[in-house]
Amino acid sequence: MPDKKILILNSTQIQQKIDRIAYQILEDNFDETEILIAGILPRGNHIAQRLKTVLDRIAPFTSKLLVIELKKDSTSLDAQINFDIEECSNKVIVLVDDVLNSGKTLAYGFGVFLDVPLKKLRTVVLVDRNHKNFPVTTDFAGVALSTVIKEHVDVVIGVEGEEDAVYLR
Predict the structure, then answer these.
(1) Is residue 108 part of a domain?
(2) Where is the Phosphoribosyltransferase domain positioned along the sequence (predicted)?
(3) pLDDT tens, residue by residue, 86-144
């Protein structure tokens, strides 16, 4: 029996959510001169890139894109980053992922910045599923879904040949 997919967000709705989140980030950081947007690979990075594009158009501050690759199956923090962690010192960090489920990925994302004094760290997810095992909250979410554990959220974003969408199956 094939998986039944329910469309949660289409391409236009995803962009509307990203635009709204960008304006919320602007309001939260209006007095800043620069913010750092850290996207967690693979899909969090696509969302981070789109946030940066909108912020570059609307914000008076500059934004820089950072990339974090986490080994999500690891029992400890194992991360690869494309930046010098010291450049984050006393800066605003916006940590971006696609879906918040258990909270483990965002918790590991926080871990990258634990040894650096930050001005502020904010979290962004496109979908917040409300099934946290870790004490993680989001500052900005595109949509919050009350789902059962057995359901799965698929985020299709930045995939060549496929239209952006969020599905529940």
Answers:
(1) yes
(2) 9-154
(3) 999 999 999 999 999 989 999 999 999 999 999 999 999 999 997 787 889 899 999 99
Extract the tokens encoding 85: 């962690």
Expressed as residue numbers, the domain containing 137 is 6-168
Q: What are the backbone angles phi and psi of residue 56, rounded to the nearest 5°?
A: -60, -30
**Total structural domains in the chain?**
1
Instruction: Tell me, yes or no, whether 1 lies in a domain.
Output: no
> Is the distance from CB of 116 to CB of 84 less than 8 angstroms?
no
Instruction: Please indicate, yes or no, if residue 127 is contained in any of the structural domains.
Output: yes
Token pair 């996207």: residue:
39
Dihedral angle sign, alpha carbons of residues 9, 24, 29, 63:
positive
**Please, what is the Cα angle at 136 between 123 and 76, to 5 degrees?**
100
Residue 120, domain member (yes or no) = yes
pLDDT per residue over 33-80, tens digit each? 999 999 999 999 999 999 999 999 999 999 999 999 998 777 778 899
For tokens 């980030």, name the residue: 25
Report in angstroms the alpha-carbon separations of 32 from 35, 107, 113. Answer: 7, 25, 19
Reply yes or no on whether the pLDDT at 1 is more than 50.
no
Angle between helices 11-28 and 43-58 (to 10 degrees): 60
Answer whether 91's CB lies under 8 Å from 35's CB: yes
